[in-house]
Design brief:
Blueprint (H helix, E strand, L loop, with lengths): L1 H16 L1 H9 L3 H10 L2 H20 L2 H20 L3 H14 L43 E6 H14 L4 E5 L2 H5 L8 E3 L11 H10 L1 H12 L5 E7 L4 H19 L5 H4 E7 L2 H4 L2 H19 L6 E5 H7 L5 H22 L11 H8 L4 E8 L8 H12 L13 E9 H6 L3 H15 L4 E9 L4 E10 L3 H15 L1
Parallel strand pairs: 1-2, 1-4, 2-3, 4-5, 5-6, 8-9
Antiparallel strand pairs: 7-10, 8-10
Bound molecules: guanosine-5'-triphosphate and magnesium ion (MG).
Length: 491
């Protein structure tokens, strides 16, 4: 027994001296158990094992004693690392954490410590707005809009959205007279007091007013809109001094607010709605000049994708299309129709269809495409005719209340949504083909723009088509017309 004990001790000592002898020593005590295994090893396999041992010896020769010591500890650690199977990049910190905390992990268990990322120096400086609801909307769309209206026109347009249930609206003006007439909560109106009642078509005054009160306006946007906003629209009437002069700086404030609440890429999520004056109004050189200046400035911003989208409402076109309206109903009818048209796409994209859904992502890609956007809707009486729906799509873009004169071939992206009565959807044979033909035709007109489709059913007994086109180049013909008016007056 004593002899055997001494033998083992000497073997252990030898094992400590060199890893090779260690391997030998460890192999012996287990010899008995492994006998069967050893017997099974073929001479070829033996030879193979020998050559491996040799290779190992060569590597060992080049290793310095210091490195040896390190390798010993590494070998032990490697066993732990292999068990956790962490990715390469994370191995180092994993080992360090494992050594410090000595976690007890089971095989296959995920090592969360290995994924603890270091805190970045600038992280603590990140802007972080506490979640605030602000005023609550009363509509359900796929996008939470906030509206800023300047001047009388801007204020009335945002009120139309307010009436639909978009409650995150703010109206600013240089005169309380216009603000008093708006039927929105007084906390959502702001008087930019410049000592005069209105800007008197002087765009410089409108600009100075918004610059003077930018902090107050920014504060009010945060208070009114809160943090639950996806897209901000600035509404103004081109031609006036307050709205026209303040539009560009209000857009800047909207972007600052957007950044503050954490909206990424504010250039894609701040847009504008701008009216163009009717011919009668534009016969005033000041109005024509103001309108041309603002329309050009905003068109350039849209083309450079600094705002998205830019929507024109052409008062002249509306005048011609809907002649005979009463004074009382004129602006309210126009504004509510425009707001309603805008709202339809936001609402439709929030609904799912059992046929083809116009998804929120589809809608957002159009609204964030930069450039100008137009929208239209039309009812198709002869939907059984193969070409009727397709023709309606073309016509509704021409008939839209919004400005015409756009080159549809410059469009980047569009949406075409058919809403048909439940009975029509169930019973009209060939309707699917007719709808598909219309979709394909729109794709052709728009120079192969991406067309997002939607087919919905409702309880009515008719078929309507809604079209929205985004990423359009500015309507140069209308801008040119305004410019020639300015030039003619100057002569
Ligand atoms: N679509 C639409 N256009 C409007 C409405 N009110 C005014 N406009 C147009 O907007 C243009 C600018 O008018 P205002 O909004 O009154 O001008 P303002 O911004 O108040 O500027 P100042 O009166 O000079 O201080 C007008 O020339 C009209 O063409 C409206 O309710 N709807
Ligand atoms: Mg005014």
């Amino acid at each position: 027994m004593k002899m055997a004990k001494r033998k083992v001790t000497s073997r252990r000592r030898a094992a400590r001296k060199s890893p090779a002898s260690k391997a030998k020593a460890t192999r012996k005590p287990t010899t008995k158990k492994r006998t069967t295994t050893k017997k099974r090893v073929t001479p070829k396999a033996k030879a193979g094992r020998k050559s491996t041992t040799k290779k190992r010896t060569t590597t060992k020769k080049t290793v310095t004693p210091k490195a040896k010591a390190t390798r010993k500890s590494t070998t032990k650690k490697r066993t732990t690392t292999r068990k956790t199977a962490t990715p390469r990049a994370a191995r180092k910190p994993a080992r360090r954490v494992a050594r410090r905390r000595k976690p007890v992990r089971h095989k296959g268990e995920f090592d969360f410590n290995a994924w603890l990322l270091p805190r970045l120096e600038l992280e603590k400086y990140e802007l972080h707005a506490e979640p605030e609801t602000g005023v609550r909307d009363k509509i359900k769309g796929s996008t939470r809009y906030a509206w800023m209206g300047a001047g009388q026109c801007g204020g009335r347009i945002v009120q139309s959205f307010y009436d639909l249930g978009y409650r995150k609206v703010l109206a600013v003006n240089t005169t309380h007279h216009d603000l008093d007439l708006l039927d929105i909560p007084k906390e959502q109106k702001f008087l930019m007091d410049i000592g005069a009642k209105g800007a008197g078509k002087d765009m410089g005054r409108g600009k100075n007013a918004v610059l003077q009160y930018q902090q107050e306006i920014l504060h009010l946007t945060r208070q009114t809109f809160g943090t639950e906003v996806d897209h901000i629209m600035v509404c103004v009437g081109a031609g006036g001094g307050t709205g026209g002069g303040s539009a560009a700086d209000l857009i800047e404030i909207a972007k600052r607010y957007a950044r503050y609440i954490g909206i990424s890429e504010p250039d894609r999520r701040v847009g504008a709605i701008m009216t163009l004056p009717a011919i009668g109004e534009a016969s005033s050189p000041k109005v024509a000049e103001n309108a041309w200046k603002l329309a050009t400035e905003l068109s350039e911003m849209a083309a450079a994708r600094q705002i998205s989208p830019l929507i024109f409402i052409d008062n002249d076109k509306i005048n011609k299309m809907y002649s005979g309206m009463t004074v009382k109903s004129f602006w309210p009818s126009i504004n509510s129709t425009v707001a309603g048209l805008f709202d339809i796409f936001n609402r439709l994209s929030a609904l799912s269809s059992r046929y083809t859904s116009f998804d929120p992502v589809d809608y957002h890609s159009i609204m964030e495409a930069g450039g100008c956007a137009i929208m239209g809707l039309t009812t198709v009486p002869k939907f059984r005719d193969k070409y009727a729906i397709s023709d309606a799509v073309k016509n509704n873009l021409a008939k839209t209340l919004l400005a015409g004169g756009f080159d549809l071939a410059t469009a980047k992206i569009a949406g075409c949504i058919v809403v048909a009565g439940r009975k029509l959807i169930e019973r009209v044979k060939g309707l699917q083909e007719n709808i598909d033909y219309a979709f394909d035709n729109l794709s052709e007109i728009t120079g192969d723009a991406t067309i997002h489709r939607g087919i919905y059913e409702d309880g009515r007994d008719c078929l309507r088509v809604y079209t929205i086109i985004g990423g359009l180049a500015p309507c140069t013909s209308r801008l040119e017309e305004l410019r020639t008016r300015v030039a003619a007056k100057a002569r």
